[in-house]
Design a protein that fits this description.
The chain is of the alpha/beta class and 462 residues long. The chain folds into 3 domains: 248 residues, P-loop containing nucleotide triphosphate hydrolases (Rossmann fold, 3-Layer(aba) Sandwich); 123 residues, no CATH class; 63 residues, no CATH class. It has 15 helices and 11 strands. Strands 2-3-4-1-5-6-7 form a 7-stranded mixed beta sheet, with helices on both faces. Strand 9 and strand 10 form a beta hairpin.
Protein backbone atom coordinates (compact mmCIF):
# COMPACT_ATOMS: atom_id res chain seq x y z
CA UNK A 1 0.00 0.00 0.00
CA UNK A 2 2.71 2.46 1.05
CA UNK A 3 4.99 1.57 -1.88
CA UNK A 4 2.16 2.11 -4.36
CA UNK A 5 1.30 5.43 -2.78
CA UNK A 6 4.90 6.62 -2.80
CA UNK A 7 5.19 5.65 -6.46
CA UNK A 8 2.36 8.04 -7.28
CA UNK A 9 4.46 10.86 -5.90
CA UNK A 10 7.56 10.25 -7.98
CA UNK A 11 8.37 13.30 -10.00
CA UNK A 12 5.50 15.35 -8.65
CA UNK A 13 6.50 18.96 -8.17
CA UNK A 14 5.16 21.21 -5.47
CA UNK A 15 3.10 23.13 -7.93
CA UNK A 16 1.18 26.33 -7.33
CA UNK A 17 -0.55 26.85 -4.04
CA UNK A 18 1.40 24.16 -2.17
CA UNK A 19 0.95 24.42 1.57
CA UNK A 20 2.59 22.62 4.46
CA UNK A 21 0.84 22.12 7.78
CA UNK A 22 2.34 20.52 10.89
CA UNK A 23 -0.12 18.29 12.72
CA UNK A 24 0.84 17.44 16.29
CA UNK A 25 -0.42 14.16 17.73
CA UNK A 26 -0.10 13.73 21.46
CA UNK A 27 -1.71 12.10 24.47
CA UNK A 28 -0.66 10.40 27.65
CA UNK A 29 0.62 6.83 27.58
CA UNK A 30 -1.82 4.22 26.22
CA UNK A 31 -4.04 6.86 24.62
CA UNK A 32 -3.39 5.36 21.16
CA UNK A 33 -1.09 7.82 19.37
CA UNK A 34 0.74 5.25 17.27
CA UNK A 35 -2.48 3.54 16.17
CA UNK A 36 -4.11 6.90 15.40
CA UNK A 37 -1.30 8.05 13.11
CA UNK A 38 -1.04 4.68 11.36
CA UNK A 39 -4.79 4.46 10.77
CA UNK A 40 -5.05 8.09 9.69
CA UNK A 41 -2.29 7.74 7.09
CA UNK A 42 -3.68 4.41 5.83
CA UNK A 43 -7.15 5.92 5.42
CA UNK A 44 -5.81 9.00 3.65
CA UNK A 45 -3.87 6.80 1.23
CA UNK A 46 -6.96 4.62 0.59
CA UNK A 47 -10.01 6.78 1.25
CA UNK A 48 -12.89 4.34 0.83
CA UNK A 49 -13.85 4.66 4.51
CA UNK A 50 -13.53 8.45 4.73
CA UNK A 51 -16.95 9.88 3.77
CA UNK A 52 -16.75 12.44 6.57
CA UNK A 53 -13.70 14.04 4.95
CA UNK A 54 -15.48 16.28 2.49
CA UNK A 55 -12.71 16.56 -0.10
CA UNK A 56 -12.43 12.76 -0.21
CA UNK A 57 -16.20 12.31 -0.50
CA UNK A 58 -16.26 14.81 -3.38
CA UNK A 59 -13.42 13.00 -5.16
CA UNK A 60 -11.12 16.01 -5.00
CA UNK A 61 -8.22 14.19 -3.34
CA UNK A 62 -6.61 12.97 -6.53
CA UNK A 63 -3.60 11.22 -5.02
CA UNK A 64 -1.88 10.67 -1.70
CA UNK A 65 1.71 9.64 -1.21
CA UNK A 66 4.40 9.48 1.45
CA UNK A 67 7.50 11.63 1.09
CA UNK A 68 10.81 11.96 2.93
CA UNK A 69 10.25 13.99 6.06
CA UNK A 70 11.71 17.50 6.11
CA UNK A 71 13.54 17.23 9.46
CA UNK A 72 16.70 15.18 8.96
CA UNK A 73 17.48 14.95 12.67
CA UNK A 74 14.06 13.63 13.78
CA UNK A 75 13.34 9.88 13.54
CA UNK A 76 10.80 8.88 10.91
CA UNK A 77 7.51 7.46 12.17
CA UNK A 78 7.70 3.76 11.24
CA UNK A 79 4.39 3.67 9.41
CA UNK A 80 5.04 0.54 7.39
CA UNK A 81 5.95 -1.63 10.38
CA UNK A 82 3.04 -0.34 12.44
CA UNK A 83 0.58 -0.96 9.59
CA UNK A 84 1.92 -4.49 9.15
CA UNK A 85 1.39 -5.12 12.88
CA UNK A 86 -2.23 -3.97 12.71
CA UNK A 87 -3.26 -5.62 9.44
CA UNK A 88 -1.10 -8.74 9.21
CA UNK A 89 -2.33 -12.34 9.53
CA UNK A 90 -1.72 -12.22 13.30
CA UNK A 91 -2.61 -8.60 14.09
CA UNK A 92 -1.23 -7.02 17.24
CA UNK A 93 -0.87 -3.55 18.69
CA UNK A 94 2.40 -1.86 17.69
CA UNK A 95 4.87 -0.51 20.21
CA UNK A 96 3.78 2.84 21.59
CA UNK A 97 5.37 6.26 21.34
CA UNK A 98 8.70 6.53 23.16
CA UNK A 99 10.15 9.64 21.57
CA UNK A 100 9.37 12.26 18.97
CA UNK A 101 8.96 11.09 15.38
CA UNK A 102 7.64 12.54 12.15
CA UNK A 103 6.07 11.56 8.84
CA UNK A 104 5.18 13.61 5.75
CA UNK A 105 2.06 12.73 3.79
CA UNK A 106 1.29 14.75 0.66
CA UNK A 107 -2.13 15.09 -0.96
CA UNK A 108 -2.74 16.22 -4.52
CA UNK A 109 -6.03 18.12 -4.39
CA UNK A 110 -8.39 19.50 -7.02
CA UNK A 111 -9.94 22.89 -6.22
CA UNK A 112 -13.60 23.48 -5.43
CA UNK A 113 -16.00 26.37 -5.68
CA UNK A 114 -16.81 28.93 -8.35
CA UNK A 115 -13.16 29.46 -9.32
CA UNK A 116 -12.30 25.78 -9.60
CA UNK A 117 -12.10 25.91 -13.39
CA UNK A 118 -9.60 28.80 -13.22
CA UNK A 119 -7.20 27.26 -10.74
CA UNK A 120 -5.08 24.17 -11.03
CA UNK A 121 -4.36 21.26 -8.79
CA UNK A 122 -2.32 21.94 -5.68
CA UNK A 123 -0.44 19.98 -3.09
CA UNK A 124 -0.94 19.92 0.66
CA UNK A 125 1.92 18.52 2.74
CA UNK A 126 0.88 17.18 6.14
CA UNK A 127 3.83 16.81 8.49
CA UNK A 128 2.58 14.57 11.30
CA UNK A 129 4.58 15.02 14.51
CA UNK A 130 4.19 12.29 17.13
CA UNK A 131 5.32 13.10 20.67
CA UNK A 132 4.50 11.86 24.20
CA UNK A 133 1.93 13.88 26.12
CA UNK A 134 4.03 13.47 29.25
CA UNK A 135 6.50 15.90 27.71
CA UNK A 136 3.86 18.63 27.84
CA UNK A 137 3.43 18.00 31.58
CA UNK A 138 7.03 19.14 31.99
CA UNK A 139 5.89 22.68 31.15
CA UNK A 140 4.71 23.04 34.76
CA UNK A 141 8.29 22.42 35.94
CA UNK A 142 9.40 25.66 34.31
CA UNK A 143 7.34 27.66 36.80
CA UNK A 144 8.79 26.16 40.00
CA UNK A 145 12.13 25.56 41.65
CA UNK A 146 13.38 22.25 43.01
CA UNK A 147 12.14 22.94 46.54
CA UNK A 148 8.57 23.74 45.48
CA UNK A 149 8.46 20.83 43.03
CA UNK A 150 9.71 18.38 45.65
CA UNK A 151 7.21 19.61 48.23
CA UNK A 152 4.27 19.30 45.80
CA UNK A 153 5.25 15.84 44.52
CA UNK A 154 5.90 14.35 47.95
CA UNK A 155 2.53 15.61 49.24
CA UNK A 156 0.70 14.22 46.20
CA UNK A 157 2.19 10.74 46.31
CA UNK A 158 2.09 10.34 50.10
CA UNK A 159 -1.14 8.28 50.17
CA UNK A 160 -0.36 6.16 47.11
CA UNK A 161 0.56 2.52 47.61
CA UNK A 162 2.63 2.67 44.42
CA UNK A 163 5.00 5.11 46.15
CA UNK A 164 5.73 2.86 49.16
CA UNK A 165 9.11 1.78 47.80
CA UNK A 166 10.17 5.35 47.08
CA UNK A 167 9.05 6.53 50.53
CA UNK A 168 11.16 3.78 52.06
CA UNK A 169 14.14 4.83 49.97
CA UNK A 170 13.71 8.42 51.19
CA UNK A 171 13.58 7.25 54.81
CA UNK A 172 17.15 5.96 54.41
CA UNK A 173 18.36 9.02 52.46
CA UNK A 174 19.98 12.16 53.88
CA UNK A 175 19.50 15.18 51.57
CA UNK A 176 22.17 17.12 53.49
CA UNK A 177 24.81 14.40 53.09
CA UNK A 178 27.74 14.91 50.68
CA UNK A 179 26.78 14.08 47.12
CA UNK A 180 27.47 10.51 46.00
CA UNK A 181 26.61 9.44 42.45
CA UNK A 182 25.65 5.82 43.30
CA UNK A 183 23.17 6.98 45.95
CA UNK A 184 21.71 9.58 43.59
CA UNK A 185 21.38 7.00 40.82
CA UNK A 186 19.63 4.54 43.13
CA UNK A 187 17.15 7.15 44.34
CA UNK A 188 16.39 8.37 40.80
CA UNK A 189 15.83 4.77 39.73
CA UNK A 190 13.46 4.23 42.66
CA UNK A 191 11.48 7.32 41.68
CA UNK A 192 11.31 6.13 38.06
CA UNK A 193 9.98 2.77 39.31
CA UNK A 194 7.28 4.64 41.21
CA UNK A 195 6.32 6.57 38.08
CA UNK A 196 6.03 3.33 36.10
CA UNK A 197 3.84 1.77 38.80
CA UNK A 198 1.67 4.88 39.00
CA UNK A 199 1.18 4.86 35.23
CA UNK A 200 0.23 1.17 35.32
CA UNK A 201 -2.36 1.95 38.02
CA UNK A 202 -4.03 4.58 35.87
CA UNK A 203 -2.42 7.75 37.22
CA UNK A 204 -1.53 10.44 34.72
CA UNK A 205 0.73 12.84 36.62
CA UNK A 206 3.89 10.98 35.66
CA UNK A 207 6.43 13.78 35.39
CA UNK A 208 9.23 14.46 34.59
CA UNK A 209 8.24 13.02 31.24
CA UNK A 210 11.68 11.73 30.24
CA UNK A 211 11.96 9.52 33.34
CA UNK A 212 9.66 6.96 31.72
CA UNK A 213 10.87 7.62 28.17
CA UNK A 214 14.56 8.49 28.60
CA UNK A 215 15.83 7.48 25.17
CA UNK A 216 19.42 8.51 24.65
CA UNK A 217 19.38 10.40 27.97
CA UNK A 218 19.10 7.23 30.05
CA UNK A 219 21.69 7.20 32.82
CA UNK A 220 22.72 10.80 32.23
CA UNK A 221 23.04 13.29 35.13
CA UNK A 222 20.17 15.33 33.70
CA UNK A 223 17.85 12.42 34.58
CA UNK A 224 19.54 11.55 37.87
CA UNK A 225 17.50 13.52 40.38
CA UNK A 226 14.37 12.94 42.44
CA UNK A 227 12.08 14.90 44.81
CA UNK A 228 13.54 15.33 48.30
CA UNK A 229 12.35 16.66 51.66
CA UNK A 230 14.13 19.96 52.20
CA UNK A 231 16.82 19.77 54.92
CA UNK A 232 17.41 22.51 57.48
CA UNK A 233 20.73 23.22 55.83
CA UNK A 234 21.88 22.31 52.33
CA UNK A 235 25.60 23.07 51.94
CA UNK A 236 27.26 23.24 48.56
CA UNK A 237 28.21 19.73 47.46
CA UNK A 238 25.28 18.13 49.28
CA UNK A 239 22.73 15.77 47.74
CA UNK A 240 20.11 18.50 47.88
CA UNK A 241 22.32 21.07 46.21
CA UNK A 242 23.38 18.79 43.33
CA UNK A 243 19.87 17.45 42.67
CA UNK A 244 18.55 21.00 42.63
CA UNK A 245 21.21 21.86 40.04
CA UNK A 246 20.26 18.84 37.92
CA UNK A 247 16.59 19.77 38.13
CA UNK A 248 17.42 23.18 36.63
CA UNK A 249 19.59 21.49 33.99
CA UNK A 250 16.67 19.26 33.02
CA UNK A 251 14.51 22.31 32.44
CA UNK A 252 17.19 24.15 30.46
CA UNK A 253 18.57 21.28 28.38
CA UNK A 254 15.54 19.01 27.90
CA UNK A 255 12.26 20.87 28.41
CA UNK A 256 13.08 24.20 26.78
CA UNK A 257 14.61 22.71 23.59
CA UNK A 258 11.54 20.53 23.00
CA UNK A 259 9.19 23.51 23.12
CA UNK A 260 11.58 25.60 21.02
CA UNK A 261 12.45 23.06 18.32
CA UNK A 262 9.22 21.10 17.97
CA UNK A 263 6.15 22.29 19.84
CA UNK A 264 6.48 25.91 18.73
CA UNK A 265 6.15 24.87 15.06
CA UNK A 266 2.84 22.97 15.31
CA UNK A 267 -0.17 24.37 13.40
CA UNK A 268 -2.89 21.83 14.23
CA UNK A 269 -3.11 19.53 17.22
CA UNK A 270 -5.02 16.45 18.34
CA UNK A 271 -4.90 15.45 22.01
CA UNK A 272 -5.87 11.79 22.54
CA UNK A 273 -7.36 10.92 25.94
CA UNK A 274 -7.95 7.44 27.39
CA UNK A 275 -11.10 8.44 29.26
CA UNK A 276 -12.39 4.87 29.54
CA UNK A 277 -9.17 3.66 31.14
CA UNK A 278 -9.38 6.39 33.78
CA UNK A 279 -13.06 5.67 34.49
CA UNK A 280 -12.28 1.99 34.90
CA UNK A 281 -9.45 2.80 37.33
CA UNK A 282 -11.81 4.81 39.52
CA UNK A 283 -12.56 8.34 40.74
CA UNK A 284 -9.01 9.11 41.85
CA UNK A 285 -7.64 8.25 38.42
CA UNK A 286 -10.26 10.48 36.78
CA UNK A 287 -9.36 13.41 39.02
CA UNK A 288 -5.70 12.78 38.37
CA UNK A 289 -6.38 12.74 34.61
CA UNK A 290 -8.25 16.05 34.91
CA UNK A 291 -5.23 17.61 36.60
CA UNK A 292 -2.86 16.13 34.02
CA UNK A 293 -4.97 17.45 31.14
CA UNK A 294 -4.91 20.87 32.74
CA UNK A 295 -1.14 20.61 32.62
CA UNK A 296 -1.25 19.58 28.97
CA UNK A 297 -3.55 22.45 28.07
CA UNK A 298 -1.20 24.90 29.71
CA UNK A 299 1.09 24.39 26.74
CA UNK A 300 -1.59 25.74 24.39
CA UNK A 301 -1.89 29.10 26.14
CA UNK A 302 1.42 30.76 25.28
CA UNK A 303 0.50 33.96 27.11
CA UNK A 304 2.17 32.33 30.12
CA UNK A 305 4.79 31.54 31.12
CA UNK A 306 6.73 34.34 29.50
CA UNK A 307 9.57 32.20 28.14
CA UNK A 308 7.12 30.08 26.12
CA UNK A 309 5.44 33.15 24.66
CA UNK A 310 8.87 34.43 23.66
CA UNK A 311 9.69 31.15 21.90
CA UNK A 312 6.39 30.95 20.03
CA UNK A 313 5.99 34.67 19.39
CA UNK A 314 2.68 35.43 17.70
CA UNK A 315 2.28 31.85 16.48
CA UNK A 316 -0.55 29.79 17.98
CA UNK A 317 -2.11 26.43 17.24
CA UNK A 318 -5.01 27.04 14.86
CA UNK A 319 -7.17 24.00 15.69
CA UNK A 320 -7.17 21.64 18.66
CA UNK A 321 -9.19 18.42 18.74
CA UNK A 322 -9.66 16.56 22.02
CA UNK A 323 -10.49 12.94 21.25
CA UNK A 324 -11.68 10.25 23.66
CA UNK A 325 -10.13 7.12 22.20
CA UNK A 326 -11.24 3.47 22.20
CA UNK A 327 -14.85 4.35 21.44
CA UNK A 328 -15.15 0.85 19.97
CA UNK A 329 -15.09 -0.46 23.56
CA UNK A 330 -18.60 1.00 23.93
CA UNK A 331 -21.84 0.51 22.02
CA UNK A 332 -22.53 3.48 19.75
CA UNK A 333 -25.37 4.54 22.05
CA UNK A 334 -22.70 5.43 24.62
CA UNK A 335 -20.54 7.55 22.37
CA UNK A 336 -22.40 10.79 23.04
CA UNK A 337 -22.10 10.39 26.85
CA UNK A 338 -18.40 9.59 26.39
CA UNK A 339 -17.92 12.83 24.45
CA UNK A 340 -19.81 14.78 27.12
CA UNK A 341 -17.65 13.18 29.82
CA UNK A 342 -14.48 14.29 27.99
CA UNK A 343 -15.88 17.81 27.59
CA UNK A 344 -16.76 17.93 31.28
CA UNK A 345 -13.33 16.62 32.22
CA UNK A 346 -11.69 19.41 30.24
CA UNK A 347 -14.19 22.12 31.16
CA UNK A 348 -12.32 23.73 34.05
CA UNK A 349 -9.03 23.69 32.19
CA UNK A 350 -10.53 24.92 28.92
CA UNK A 351 -12.44 27.73 30.60
CA UNK A 352 -9.18 29.12 31.97
CA UNK A 353 -7.18 28.57 28.79
CA UNK A 354 -6.87 31.41 26.32
CA UNK A 355 -6.80 29.76 22.93
CA UNK A 356 -6.93 33.18 21.25
CA UNK A 357 -9.22 32.26 18.39
CA UNK A 358 -8.19 28.63 17.96
CA UNK A 359 -11.03 26.32 16.94
CA UNK A 360 -11.52 23.51 19.45
CA UNK A 361 -13.74 20.43 19.44
CA UNK A 362 -14.23 17.18 21.34
CA UNK A 363 -15.37 13.82 19.99
CA UNK A 364 -15.23 10.09 20.69
CA UNK A 365 -13.21 8.08 18.16
CA UNK A 366 -11.62 4.71 17.52
CA UNK A 367 -8.76 5.03 15.05
CA UNK A 368 -8.89 1.28 14.46
CA UNK A 369 -12.13 -0.51 15.21
CA UNK A 370 -11.41 -3.76 17.06
CA UNK A 371 -14.97 -4.80 17.99
CA UNK A 372 -18.47 -5.36 16.60
CA UNK A 373 -21.72 -4.48 18.35
CA UNK A 374 -24.19 -7.02 19.70
CA UNK A 375 -27.39 -6.93 21.74
CA UNK A 376 -28.01 -9.64 24.34
CA UNK A 377 -30.96 -10.41 26.58
CA UNK A 378 -30.34 -10.27 30.32
CA UNK A 379 -33.21 -10.65 32.77
CA UNK A 380 -35.70 -9.86 30.03
CA UNK A 381 -33.91 -6.64 29.08
CA UNK A 382 -31.85 -5.86 25.99
CA UNK A 383 -28.21 -5.16 26.82
CA UNK A 384 -25.97 -3.42 24.28
CA UNK A 385 -22.52 -5.07 24.16
CA UNK A 386 -19.36 -5.09 22.08
CA UNK A 387 -17.57 -8.26 21.01
CA UNK A 388 -13.90 -8.63 20.18
CA UNK A 389 -10.80 -10.79 20.41
CA UNK A 390 -9.27 -10.65 23.88
CA UNK A 391 -5.68 -9.52 24.01
CA UNK A 392 -4.50 -12.00 26.64
CA UNK A 393 -6.11 -15.19 25.36
CA UNK A 394 -7.14 -14.53 21.77
CA UNK A 395 -10.65 -15.87 22.40
CA UNK A 396 -13.78 -14.00 21.38
CA UNK A 397 -15.79 -12.35 24.19
CA UNK A 398 -18.70 -9.96 24.55
CA UNK A 399 -18.50 -7.05 27.02
CA UNK A 400 -21.11 -4.86 28.63
CA UNK A 401 -18.91 -2.10 30.06
CA UNK A 402 -21.67 -0.26 31.94
CA UNK A 403 -23.65 2.81 31.01
CA UNK A 404 -22.21 6.26 31.33
CA UNK A 405 -24.64 8.88 32.71
CA UNK A 406 -26.14 11.37 30.31
CA UNK A 407 -24.59 14.14 32.41
CA UNK A 408 -21.02 13.67 33.69
CA UNK A 409 -21.40 16.19 36.50
CA UNK A 410 -22.11 13.69 39.28
CA UNK A 411 -19.19 11.42 38.38
CA UNK A 412 -16.79 14.33 38.04
CA UNK A 413 -17.94 15.65 41.42
CA UNK A 414 -17.27 12.24 43.00
CA UNK A 415 -13.78 12.28 41.51
CA UNK A 416 -13.11 15.84 42.65
CA UNK A 417 -14.28 15.01 46.19
CA UNK A 418 -11.82 12.12 46.45
CA UNK A 419 -14.24 9.18 46.37
CA UNK A 420 -12.60 5.76 46.59
CA UNK A 421 -15.03 4.15 44.12
CA UNK A 422 -18.02 5.04 41.99
CA UNK A 423 -21.22 5.15 44.01
CA UNK A 424 -23.73 3.92 41.47
CA UNK A 425 -21.92 1.57 39.11
CA UNK A 426 -18.78 -0.26 38.13
CA UNK A 427 -17.25 0.26 34.72
CA UNK A 428 -15.45 -2.60 33.01
CA UNK A 429 -12.75 -2.45 30.39
CA UNK A 430 -11.38 -5.38 28.41
CA UNK A 431 -8.14 -5.29 26.47
CA UNK A 432 -9.08 -6.21 22.91
CA UNK A 433 -6.60 -7.24 20.25
CA UNK A 434 -6.91 -5.84 16.73
CA UNK A 435 -9.47 -7.69 14.63
CA UNK A 436 -8.29 -9.76 11.68
CA UNK A 437 -8.99 -7.70 8.59
CA UNK A 438 -9.74 -8.39 4.95
CA UNK A 439 -9.52 -5.02 3.19
CA UNK A 440 -10.96 -4.43 -0.25
CA UNK A 441 -9.02 -2.33 -2.76
CA UNK A 442 -9.28 1.37 -1.92
CA UNK A 443 -10.27 0.78 1.70
CA UNK A 444 -8.29 1.70 4.76
CA UNK A 445 -8.75 -0.04 8.13
CA UNK A 446 -12.17 0.31 9.82
CA UNK A 447 -12.56 3.10 12.35
CA UNK A 448 -15.05 5.25 14.23
CA UNK A 449 -15.14 8.96 13.27
CA UNK A 450 -11.57 9.09 12.05
CA UNK A 451 -12.92 10.80 8.93
CA UNK A 452 -14.67 13.46 11.02
CA UNK A 453 -11.50 14.01 13.03
CA UNK A 454 -9.55 14.49 9.80
CA UNK A 455 -12.19 16.90 8.47
CA UNK A 456 -11.86 19.06 11.58
CA UNK A 457 -8.07 19.01 11.59
CA UNK A 458 -7.25 19.45 7.90
CA UNK A 459 -10.53 19.64 5.94
CA UNK A 460 -10.32 23.41 5.44
CA UNK A 461 -6.92 23.01 3.76
CA UNK A 462 -8.34 20.68 1.12
Amino acid sequence: MAARAEALGQGLTAGRGARTVRLGVTGLSRAGKTVFITALVANLLDRGRMPGLRAAAEGRVLAAFLQPQPDDTVPRFDYESHLAALTGPDPHWPEGTRAISELRLSLRVAPSGLLAALSGERRVNIDIVDYPGEWLLDLALMEVDFADWSKEVLARIAPRAEAAGYRQALADFDPAAPFAEPAARDLARSYAHYLAAAKASGYSDCAPGRFLLPGELEGSPVLTFAPLPRPDAAPRGSMWHEMSRRFEAYKAKVVRPFFRDHFAKIDRQIVLVDVLGAIHSGPRAVEDLRGAMEGVLRAFRPGRPGWLAALIGGRRVERILFAATKADHLHHSQHAPLTRFLSGLLRSARDRADFAGADTAAMAIAALRATVEETHQRGGEAVDCVRGRLLDSGREAALFPGELPDSPAAMLAEAHDGAERWLDADYAVMAFAPARLVLRPGEGPPHIRLDRAAEFLIGDLL
